[in-house]
């Protein structure tokens, strides 16, 4: 065969192997320009495609590996060759210290392969687990993601879905349940971190997350372009009326303009978990909204702090909570376990941790989020902070009941208690917070504090791992 004939055979084979499919179109949207380089393009199962496209490229100029299940190649069926391609992506990411984005859209296993298909799923799940906390992983669910594939997707640091995608463990388990398996329900259950209306927006959200995260657990966080909000007056106004203050507005006022990415918005209504930049550097943001914290709130906050700790991303916590929900329903929902998990994660995290008490900080919630257990490097407070072992009305009932008179009613005693015994200045005088700050200066104080803490180094006692309340 002549050289020209060989070249034509190769060109024809490559054209057939890399023909346009939804999987390749999604990867083209994910990566910068024409930076995507496909791996194992000629891999087949008999005369059929492997059901997945794999490769690497650049996102905002940084190296990223990816795989995209190909629904047009035997329904994206997962088998031995499919798994080998995906495993190679994970292995290369581990060797090079680069993030992985997985795009899920498959009708399930290649049933003709029997036990080999089971082993294939096992290989992918193990590979994902091996690099958890080493390089960032993002799952993009743009079609059907079911069974073991759902476990693999959920194993990532962040799960991003389009509204029309499906995400469930067992088809039998979704029968008769309204909305089960939908993106909306995945958001409510906390299984999905972000849900976007279209595939293009979901892919854009994944690109944005990658741009906010370090390449791996040994790399420094990226530095982003930024501009500050002119929010000093709004922050001062919030301090004057914390009962009516908008917690998200406080967060957005402190961090760089347009940088706040809230995750698990529909899961845990009493708190906010987000990534944002401050002076161009990525931070994890936890904020409580003033009420009591549910099991879902605790799980959401613990998850974000754990991710931030894995990649040495600073965590800023805004504390304004009356404590943890306490009733029979919440106990059955695992509130005790989840609150203990939250406290455990904060205590174990060695990343930079700064707490800002903006309003109520009562009892065990204060201990978990801002007290000694939280291991906060610096704890700050607004003048509106109320720091108390018990809710003020309970504290007054137990310890200050004798002060209630006809001329000095219970409301007056409670107000006096909050402004004296439980005030931020009292906590500062006792050495439990480092400073009481002007709300308008919160951004500047945090910038200075995080800069001071940038070289933080902490070691734990030797052990394999701690035993977190699961």
Structure report:
The chain contains 17 helices and 21 strands. With 470 residues, it is of the alpha/beta class. The strands form 5 sheets. Strands 12, 13, 14, 16, 18, 19, 20 and 21 form an 8-stranded mixed sheet that branches. Helix 4 (115-130) packs parallel to helix 5 (148-154) and helix 10 packs parallel to helix 12 (335-348). The longest helix has 17 residues, at 80-96. The radius of gyration is 25 Å and the shape is elongated. The termini are far apart.
Question: What's this, in brief?
Answer:
The chain has 470 residues and is an alpha/beta fold. 38% of the residues lie in helices and 20% in strands. It has helices spanning 3-17, 22-30, 80-96, 115-130, 148-154, 183-189, 199-212, 232-240, 247-254, 295-310, 328-332, 335-348, 363-369, 392-399, 410-419, 424-429, 442-452, and strands spanning 37-39, 44-45, 48-49, 52-59, 62-69, 100-104, 137-141, 144-146, 158-162, 166-168, 194-196, 261-263, 271-278, 281-288, 292-293, 315-321, 323-324, 353-362, 378-381, 386-388, 435-436.
Strand element count? 21
Helical content class: 25-40%
Largest sheet: 8 strands, mixed
Counting helices, strands and paired strands, the structural category is alpha/beta
Shape: elongated
Mean of all residue-level pLDDT scores: 91
Rg, nearest Å? 25 Å
Distance between the termini: 64 Å
Beta strand %:
15-25%
Low-confidence stretches: none
Q: Helical stretch count?
A: 17
Summarize the helices and strands and which ones pair or pack.
Layout: H1 3-17, H2 22-30, E1 37-39, E2 44-45, E3 48-49, E4 52-59, E5 62-69, H3 80-96, E6 100-104, H4 115-130, E7 137-141, E8 144-146, H5 148-154, E9 158-162, E10 166-168, H6 183-189, E11 194-196, H7 199-212, H8 232-240, H9 247-254, E12 261-263, E13 271-278, E14 281-288, E15 292-293, H10 295-310, E16 315-321, E17 323-324, H11 328-332, H12 335-348, E18 353-362, H13 363-369, E19 378-381, E20 386-388, H14 392-399, H15 410-419, H16 424-429, E21 435-436, H17 442-452
Parallel strand pairs: 5-6, 6-7, 7-9, 8-10, 9-11, 14-16, 15-17, 16-18, 18-19, 18-20, 19-21
Antiparallel strand pairs: 1-4, 2-3, 4-5, 12-13, 13-14
Helix pairs in contact: 3-4, 4-5, 8-9, 10-12, 12-13, 14-15
């Amino acid at each position: 065969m002549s050289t020209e004939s060989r070249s034509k055979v190769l060109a024809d084979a490559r054209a057939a192997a890399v023909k346009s499919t939804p999987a390749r179109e999604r990867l083209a949207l994910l990566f910068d320009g024409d930076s995507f380089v496909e791996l194992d393009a000629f891999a087949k199962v008999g005369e059929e495609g492997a059901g997945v496209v794999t490769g690497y490229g650049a996102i905002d100029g940084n190296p990223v590996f990816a795989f995209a299940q190909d629904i047009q190649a035997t329904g994206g069926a997962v088998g031995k060759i499919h798994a080998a391609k995906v495993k190679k992506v994970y292995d290369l990411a581990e060797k090079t210290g680069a993030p992985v984005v997985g795009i899920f859209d498959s009708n399930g296993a290649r049933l003709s392969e029997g036990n080999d298909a089971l082993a294939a799923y096992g290989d992918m799940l193990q590979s994902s687990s091996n690099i958890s906390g080493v390089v960032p992983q993002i799952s993009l669910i743009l079609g059907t993601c079911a069974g073991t594939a759902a476990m693999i997707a959920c194993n990532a640091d962040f799960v991003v879905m389009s509204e029309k995608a499906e995400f469930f463990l067992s088809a039998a388990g979704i029968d008769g349940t309204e909305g089960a398996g939908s993106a909306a329900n995945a958001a409510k259950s906390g299984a999905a971190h972000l849900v976007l209306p279209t595939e293009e927006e979901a892919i854009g959200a994944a690109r944005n997350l990658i741009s906010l995260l370090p390449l791996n657990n040994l790399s420094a966080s990226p530095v982003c372009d930024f501009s500050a909000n002119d929010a000093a007056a709004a922050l001062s106004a919030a301090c004057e009326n914390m009962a009516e203050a908008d917690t998200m507005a406080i967060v957005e006022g402190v961090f760089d303009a347009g940088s706040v990415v809230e995750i698990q918005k529909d899961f845990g209504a009493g708190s906010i978990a987000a990534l944002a930049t401050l002076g161009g550097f990525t931070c994890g943001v936890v904020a409580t909204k003033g009420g009591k914290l549910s099991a879902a709130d605790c799980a959401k906050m613990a998850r974000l702090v754990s991710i931030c700790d894995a990649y040495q991303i600073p965590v800023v916590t805004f504390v304004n909570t009356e404590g943890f929900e306490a009733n029979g329903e919440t106990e059955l929902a695992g509130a005790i376990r989840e609150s203990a998990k939250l406290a455990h994660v904060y205590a174990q995290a060695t990343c930079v941790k700064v707490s800002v008490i903006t309003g109520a900080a009562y009892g065990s919630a204060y201990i978990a989020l801002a007290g000694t257990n939280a291991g906060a490097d610096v704890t700050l407070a607004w003048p509106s902070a109320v720091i108390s072992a018990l809710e003020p009305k309970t504290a007054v009932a137990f310890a200050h009941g004798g002060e209630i008179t006809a001329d000095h009613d219970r409301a007056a005693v409670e107000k006096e208690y909050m402004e004296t015994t439980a005030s931020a200045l009292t906590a500062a005088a006792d050495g439990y917070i480092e400073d009481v700050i002007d709300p308008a200066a919160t951004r500047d104080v945090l910038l200075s504090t995080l800069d001071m803490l940038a070289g933080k180094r902490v070691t734990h006692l030797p052990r394999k791992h701690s035993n977190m309340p699961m």
